[in-house]
Design brief:
Layout (H helix, E strand, L loop, with lengths): L13 E9 L6 H14 L4 E7 L6 H11 L3 E6 L5 H11 L2 E6 L11 H9 L5 E5 L7 H18 L11 E4 H5 L11 H7 L5 E5 L15 H19 L3 H32 L11 H29 L8 E5 L8
Parallel strand pairs: 1-2, 1-4, 2-3, 5-7
Antiparallel strand pairs: 3-8, 4-6, 5-6
Length: about 325
């Protein structure tokens, strides 16, 4: 497609939106976009490709401008700085106009040939979200073993039976993608967030993992640690984000009760010793008295934290905004 006069259809009237978050991928972009275009034309899909440049410091944006000039289905968004993959996906989800939204990495390790199969699983098999599973990986053992352990822990904690949470190749029904609030490093947990939003038809498709052709990976082994911490965070938020008093109040009540019982027991023991003329020592000489006071104080603090959390939850309207430096392509009637 080279017709720049052709207007893009309004939201949800094209078949597929392909979102490609990228950072310093100038070498792979032309080949990737040509590959996507070829697949879409072969299957007669109406489509758009949304390239989200996450503050690249190479020539990625110049490449995007050039590609957009020759293909009206290609649009680009450029951040003013590097926000991370989650920010790029969040912006892409809110901008995409397709009935099915497909995400893939820009490094050519995800194959566009998988797009028709992912699209069919969403539109014909009724899935809300389909995640790729790179069953055969071209990674060193130092990455494959931690990946297996990470995914096993993620399945156990989240209850989502996927083998490859971190695969960038995923397909979403449009309303599912727009329901996700993605920030920080939560891009690894989009299936978990979708499930907790009530979209439980989550499938998996074995996809091809291609060796990296250009550049080097942007992620290190620390992503497994950060990813695990993020999973604990969203697990906590999902269970108690709308009812913080339930967790803080419960622990506060328990701590306050333990401290009060200990204090009364120590005071009663001293009164009994005085009444029976037994040896006793002052409460302030007993370490257990100070432990009891600490428990009471901690209990009160947890109660206060719960009340503050309830106030914040009641009055908050969380929005996630990222500073866009420039755009290229068709963006009429699209809110970003």
């Amino acid at each position: 497609m080279t017709n720049r006069d052709k207007k893009m259809p309004p939201i949800n009237l094209i078949d597929i939106s392909v979102i490609v978050p990228l950072y310093n991928e100038e070498e792979s972009l032309p080949e990737l976009c040509e590959w996507i275009e070829r697949v879409m034309d072969e299957h007669r899909f109406s489509y758009e490709v949304l390239l989200v440049d996450d503050g690249s410091n190479d020539n990625s944006w110049a490449v995007i401008e050039h590609l957009s000039a020759r293909n009206s289905a290609l649009r680009g968004i450029r951040f003013s700085r590097n926000y991370g993959k989650s920010a790029a996906l969040h912006t892409g989800f809110q901008t995409a106009r397709g009935k099915v939204i497909i995400t893939m990495d820009a490094d050519l390790q995800d194959s566009p040939d998988e797009i028709p199969g992912l699209y069919r699983m969403i539109t014909q098999e009724g899935y809300d979200l389909v995640s790729g599973w790179k069953k055969v990986r071209y990674d060193p053992v130092s990455k494959t073993i931690p990946t297996k352990l990470f995914n096993a822990a993620a399945r156990w904690i989240s209850g989502v039976p996927l083998h490859d949470f971190n695969c960038g190749l995923k397909a979403y029904r449009s309303n599912v993608a727009r329901s996700l609030r993605v920030y920080g490093e939560l891009h690894r947990w989009l299936p978990v967030l979708a499930k907790w939003n009530g979209f439980r038809r989550i499938g998996e498709k074995v996809v091809q993992h291609r060796p990296r052709k250009y550049g080097s990976t942007k992620f290190g082994l620390e992503r497994f640690l950060y990813g695990f911490l993020d999973l604990l965070t969203i697990s906590f938020i999902n269970r108690f984000g709308k009812r913080p008093m339930h967790i803080f109040g419960a622990f506060g009540a328990l701590s306050f009760l333990v401290g009060t019982v200990m204090t009364l027991w120590l005071a009663g023991d001293k009164i009994y010793s005085i009444a029976t003329q037994q040896k006793f020592r002052n409460l302030t000489d007993d370490p257990k008295f100070f432990l009891a006071l600490i428990a009471i104080v901690v209990g009160v603090q947890l109660f206060v934290a719960g009340f503050i959390g309830e106030l914040l939850t009641t009055n908050s309207d969380r929005t996630t905004e990222y500073q866009i430096r420039e755009r290229v392509g068709e963006f009429e009637n699209v809110r970003i």
